[in-house]
Design brief:
Length: 217
């Protein structure tokens, strides 16, 4: 398993596209982070991987609840929320309720050449710039989504499950390099969206340190 995920993680970052838009409204802003990747599978299989309670734990996390339109879901150790849209096999939209905050996550699945593409949008409306945004920037959630897309890439390519929490891979140089690269790329998306480079790079360093358990350089 460690060899498989190390091999896939080495080229994973280049398979993903990331984008960020920030629309300010006085003292608040709507922030939309987008991450997208094509997989060598069918639209139907990718939909199943993203919605099946049997497959979700293998690359993302255990999900329970009333998994239908208007129902409540819960991701073990993570967020919960309400399913606001469900249009098989192409679109799901949910509220993302975590640590007292509410945001929105939309999944879109489309055909892509000989495969299928998953595009995820995570939309947040908040006071802006908030202390949290200034400290960590989009990488706070973006690195987490990159890790999820890596788990999905491993699952689609090999059928294997992601490495468990505290695994050998999570402690490896390959994992730290993957996280640092993801954090850097989200900082670049932040700069492209208008964040001053010095602020974006400072947030990148703090995000990388948070995910890797290291001191801020």
């Amino acid at each position: 398993m460690t060899e498989n995920v190390t091999t896939i993680s080495a080229g994973q970052a280049d398979q993903v596209t990331r984008g960020l838009t920030v629309t300010e409204h006085g003292d608040t802003a709507t922030v939309v982070a987008t991450i997208s990747q094509a997989y060598a599978t069918t639209v139907e299989d990718l939909w199943n991987a993203c919605t099946s309670t049997e497959r979700l734990p293998r690359w993302f996390g255990p999900v329970s609840g009333d998994l239908e339109l208007g129902g409540r879901y819960r991701i073990e150790g993570n967020a919960d929320g309400t399913i606001e849209a469900c249009e098989p096999p192409s679109r799901v939209k949910v509220t993302w309720e975590f640590a007292g905050n509410i945001s929105w996550v939309t999944l879109r699945i489309t055909e892509d050449d000989d495969g299928a593409r998953l595009t995820l949008e995570h939309e947040t409306t908040e006071d802006f710039p908030s202390d949290f945004w200034t400290t960590y920037g989009p990488g706070a959630t973006g690195v987490g989504w990159d890790l999820a897309f890596l788990g999905l890439a491993l699952h689609i390519a090999t059928g294997a499950s992601k490495p468990p929490e505290g695994s050998e891979w999570e402690r490896s140089d390959a994992a730290r390099e993957f996280i640092a690269d993801s954090s850097r790329r989200w900082a670049e998306a932040s700069i492209a969206a208008g964040t001053p480079e010095d602020a974006a790079r400072a947030a990148e360093r703090r995000t990388t340190a948070f995910y890797t358990g290291q001191e801020v350089e």
